[in-house]
Amino acid sequence: MMKIKLLVALLGLAKVLLGQSPDAVNLLALEKQAQLALHRGIHFFHSIAIKGGYVYYYTTDLKEKWGEGETDDFTIEVQPPGTPAVGLAFLRAYRTMPRPEFLQAAMDAARALIVGQNDLGGWDHKIFFQRKKRNLVSFDDDQTQSAIRFLMAMDQEIENDSLYRAIDSALKMMLAAQFTNGAWPHLYPKQGDYHDYATFNDRTINNCIEVMLDAHRYYHKPEFLESLKQAGHFLIISQLPPPQPGWAQ
Fold first, then answer.
1. Which CATH number is 52-237 given?
2. Which residue from 121, 144, 151 is spatially nearest to 214, judged by alpha carbons?
3. Hey, which residues does 50 pair with through a beta bridge?
4. pLDDT digits (tens, 9 = 90+) for 47-69
5. Ranges of each domain in the chain
6. Contact 185/196 with Cβ under 8 angstroms?
7. What is the C-alpha separation between 248 and 234, in angstroms, rounded?
8. What is the DSSP secondary structure assignment for residue 67, as one 8-state letter?
């Protein structure tokens, strides 16, 4: 997906430079090459989707695939660089080069996440299409957070009832999972061990804050601003004292 992001950036740069450079012919050729490469890349990635979702790695013959460990044809990854990251790359490509097949690829990734959303409104590490969903929300490694951010970004492009319901459930869960002191835990609901602690490790709280920033930016509801204020409060009270005024994990 890093290559898709680079192509999107290259295409945007070519468009900007076209109006500024005397070498417009070469830049136009570069733009067309970037468009073709982007189309080929997205078509290929979309062709290897698993029910719309993605894992991390594929062998060149596509016979083997991996996420966190070897996986199968009925399992996708939520943790980046899995399904939300791929879907967001498709969406960025669509915003740069508005082809309907790019938006369709992004929506297919969104649908895979919606199917895998559990009853609490969040996601675990993986989505197992052939297994019963666990009612466990993981904030580790940008798992649930990346899914919500991608779905909210999709919501800015299309109107879809299932998408809206998934986002509404997810954001209500984010508010419920937030501690009264403003932090978020590693896992939700409580597990009775270290997973219940306020967690900076692997950007847990940072990514939760990013979700609420996007929610406030998109939907302008007072509860999201209040959540951000509480999170800011926690950042202040959790800072360690001098001479090492950083934060623990």
1. 1.50.10.20
2. 151
3. 53
4. 999 999 999 999 999 999 999 88
5. 1-47, 52-237
6. yes
7. 13
8. E
